[in-house]
Design a protein that fits this description.
The protein has 15 helices and 19 strands. It is α/β, with parallel strands linked by helices and 512 residues long. The structure holds flavin-adenine dinucleotide.
Length: 512
Amino acid sequence: MEATGGDGKAPGGPRVLVVGGGIAGLGAAQRLCGHPAFPHLRVLDARPVPGRSRIRSERGFGGVVEVGAHWIHGPSRGNPVFQLAAEYGLLGEKALSEENQLVETGGHVGLPCVSYASSGVRVSLQLVAEMATLFYGLIDQSREFLQAAETPAPSVGQYLKEAIRRHVAGWTEDEETRKLKLAVLSAFFNLECCVSGTHSLDLVALAPFGEYTVLPGLDCTFAEGYQGLTNCMVASLPEDTLVFEKPVKTIHWNGAFQEAAFPGETFPVSVECEDGDRFPAHHVIVTVPLGFLKEHLDTFFDPPLPAEKAEAIRKVGFGTNNKIFLEFEEPFWEPDCQLIQLVWEDTSPLEDPTLTLRDAWFRKLIDFVVLPAFGSVHVLCGFIAGLESEFMETLSDEEVLLCLTQVLRRVTGNPRLPAPKSVLRSRWHSAPYTRGSYSYVAVGSTGDDLDLLAQPLPADGTDAQLQVLFAGEATHRTFYSTTHGALLSGWREADRLLGLWAPQAQQPRPRL
Ligand SMILES: Cc1cc2nc3c(=O)[nH]c(=O)nc-3n(C[C@H](O)[C@H](O)[C@H](O)COP(=O)(O)OP(=O)(O)OC[C@H]3O[C@@H](n4cnc5c(N)ncnc54)[C@H](O)[C@@H]3O)c2cc1C
């Protein structure tokens, strides 16, 4: 079938380039590859091998560890990542069970099995549960301002702190218990910073906070690694579709480009790579992370993006959340323990930290998740967000290992606790093609800005249409920061092209 449509100047079908081979780019490519209107499709990625995107599983400690995405959030029928993973046969029985899919977590993280305080004593789990109820009750309340004409505070952080101040005024316990309660709340603030991928909840806008949508289902993992999913997607594409080690430097658009390889043809877009290669195209789907876009905004598009779109890229938040894996010869935790919480007794969400990053970066580290043992190897996975996380990236493995050994000895009250055997960590802020972990709606921005990010160019529709399209997690208004948001955004942009070139076509299911 000869493709017709678009500007009508694409004999043999339009040339489509996808920039970025993460789950958004792969999702778009899968959808387009399944349709005869798109015989010329390429995915360009900066990295040397597939699966170095934010879904990244690495062999380590005799098993597989997730350097990027960890869970399918809300694994149930409405979640396309869950559906795709299930179709590829990558999920276990428990994750697939009806019962698991029906669990409503409200997006809240489960309670720790043990909570260690910095003085080396254990915090009562009853007190932790009480503070969790207070904290998550307030988080739920902060989702209720979506339709409000005015909000009581600009940010989630300020709203929570004001509400906590009111609660504290009614606390009748002794000074020590009140301080401990605030310290536990501080740990929950840090945890929520990891969830939102932000340095501080003071940066997260209150009004649009409720727009992020939580799907039902108890978060689940991939026994063989999340990357099994993107590997299956890659394997379903024709062999020469993916081009690795092709960092794109500049996307020239709104032009009339001619290439010797295509005599007589004119292309509205030409994609220039770092190595000087140029790829002409009728359509380009840009799926690079928002962190990369922020850093290269001035040079990545020629002509530059319309002012409103560039402003949206600047305004939407993109922060860092990293993981630190520690390997132990022997577990120091109970056999059924899944989550270890750390509480710094002299902290309070109502007071700004005064210590320097070097002296106190590790206090931002939240819980340690106990990974299922790989044979005789025992691994904890710690999470840390914000500027402290970015500082951690500048340290050596030895420094991180030494520091966390001291922390664990201190909180367990065991000065002889054996040091972890090894450490492995992510460094998402230093990663040149990511520059952070995921997006959030920052103070000064709204869901409209995410929609603006998703708007294709040219905006006025007078020239060749849909020259540059935008996908990636940051372009999904209600599922930003997730793998399912990213996948849906890729499908959305593929459908946009299908609507232009094959409006009569049935939307195909992805080829599995
Ligand atoms: C530590 C961490 C934990 C997470 N945990 C979860 C979780 O548990 N559950 C969940 O749902 N989500 C989680 N996420 C978020 C999730 O991983 C992302 O939302 C999702 O993978 C983003 O997919 P994407 O395709 O939009 O972007 P990416 O996966 O980042 O893909 C973009 C691609 O663009 C390429 N690229 C960048 N610049 C260029 C260039 N100039 N030229 C060519 N290629 C370029 C990159 O190499 C990359 O492959 C986590 C992320 C991180 C970092």
